[in-house]
Design a protein that fits this description.
binds nicotinamide-adenine-dinucleotide, 8 helices, seven-stranded parallel β-sheet, alpha/beta, Rossmann fold, 42% helix
Length: 240
Amino acid sequence: MARLQGRRIIITGGASGIGRATAALFRQEGAAVAVLDRTASPDGAPSFEVDVSDATSVANAVAAAVKALGGLDGVVNAAGIFSDAGLADTSAELFTRTLAVNLTGTFLVMQAAAPHLKSAGGGTIVNIASGVGLTPTGPGSTAYVASKSGVIGLTKAVAMELAPAVRVNSVCPGAVDTPMTHAFLVDASGATVPGIARRYALGRSAAPDELAAAILFLTSNESSFVTGIALPVDGGRTYH
Ligand SMILES: NC(=O)c1ccc[n+]([C@@H]2O[C@H](COP(=O)([O-])OP(=O)(O)OC[C@H]3O[C@@H](n4cnc5c(N)ncnc54)[C@H](O)[C@@H]3O)[C@@H](O)[C@H]2O)c1
């Protein structure tokens, strides 16, 4: 039996990387998926253009997606942008933009989706935070770390508010080979660059599918007693 049979799910950032792998796995598992992204899904999943940092754009895209799906049972917030700039090099504009996409975007999508999840009788939300939101890897990424710590806290707050009907969890990935990271994560042979691999007990970065599997667990009924957590999927970086 497919693990998401009959579930109707919005995936932001579903046109690339972790969101794209999640959309593919969820469709395999029987879900009807709507991708909300700046660009359309390259895999032919029904797609709705959105800028998650813009409240009107989110309201319109969520309404259109819910109409197309015929209701809503789940959300995955995977849209995001990265910045490695440190405190001195982060302009106010860069800080504001990073927070607007990663944190405000997650908030806006949850706010627009929650009434639909409730009227379906319940559902799930999975927000993609980051391992650096729990434990930074070192100096730099000031705005990004702030945004991802915010996503972890926001997830806990909304989990308490929407319980028991809606379960809300975050996933905290370590380094994942996606279009966001490929240029600095992977060398010409396809191996994780040594300076990054050393940080991980498992000695490598992750494939997007390995994150999709964790997101599937938190979306499926297998995690029926799990809400409000921040799940590290980080190859052991936290304790290494
Ligand atoms: N790749 C990693 O190593 C890693 C590690 C930890 C956390 N994450 C997080 O995982 C999530 C997915 O990242 P990824 O690595 O798959 O990156 P990616 O760049 O491959 O995918 C991100 C997607 O988000 C979309 N997006 C960006 N800004 C948007 C906006 N304003 N409105 C709508 N869509 C927007 C992009 O178009 C893209 O399709 C992000 O939140 C990222 O911060 C990634």
